[in-house]
Amino acid sequence: MDKAFEDEFIPPMTSIKSGNSVEITADLICHTIQIVNICMVGNPHRPDPWFLVDAGMPHSAPDIIALAEQRFGSRRPRAILLTHGHFDHVGAIVELIEHWDVPVYAHELELPYLTGKADYPPGDPQVAGGMVSDLSPWFPNHGIRLQGQVKALPTDGSVPHFPEWRVIHTPGHTPGHISLFRKRDRSLIVGDAFVTVKQESLYKVMLQIKEISGPPKYFTTDWQAAKESVKRLAALAPAVAITGHGIPMDGAELTQALDQLVTEFDRIALPEQGRYVH
């Protein structure tokens, strides 16, 4: 990690719990809502626009709005970007749109699940790994109906209104899954392309035991695409990675963990069995 980036870092990222925020840089925070992370991107000390990445768990809109007002005052976000449409990443999206009246962006391949045209495949308990996997068939997998409120991201990888950020298409967990990357400081917002906790295990999720893992196994349907997506992200040599689940990783720990995930993907990430494992 270069010195300029280190100087922007606030204290070491050692633990994260529901309701807590970790300030990665002056304009990037990770906030945990129950079992999932959202990001707010923008400097609260400048009048620049800011954007929200993902919309957390159901019924979390009041908490997200309160955090936004604490950080940005009356400034609403310029946009909301969705890494994908699983229930734990879009839980408060309808309420947030009603409150802020801002555009929502997602990859074009994710739009069917965000406009009520398609449902996600159900969770797969056959991947084993813990109680979360066992319970996954009961997790909501239906699409939501944002209709004209959601727009497709530009196909050139740009992020509307935020030229420093780039969209990285990282399918596998879902067809239109995306990650976001800023080259200036090599900040990576991963979504669920990989995570830093064994999301299948309720025990490890509750204790937030940090370890590199692939995308959550019980909802991932294309493992070859997921593997290629991890390779694509590792090639960016990120300095810090904020994942959809787990504690942010940075520096040498992140580099070594990603290298290991790339070289040992089949052992670390790929389930031994499952309805989506081919």
Automatic annotation (TrEMBL):
Membrane-spanning residues: none
Protein's UniProt name: MBL fold metallo-hydrolase
Signal peptide: none
Cross-referenced SMART domains: Lactamase_B
Pfam families in the cross-refs: Lactamase_B (PF00753)
InterPro entries in the cross-refs: Metallo-B-lactamas, NDM-1-like, RibonucZ/Hydroxyglut_hydro
Domain Metallo-beta-lactamase: 35-245
Species of provenance: Laceyella putida
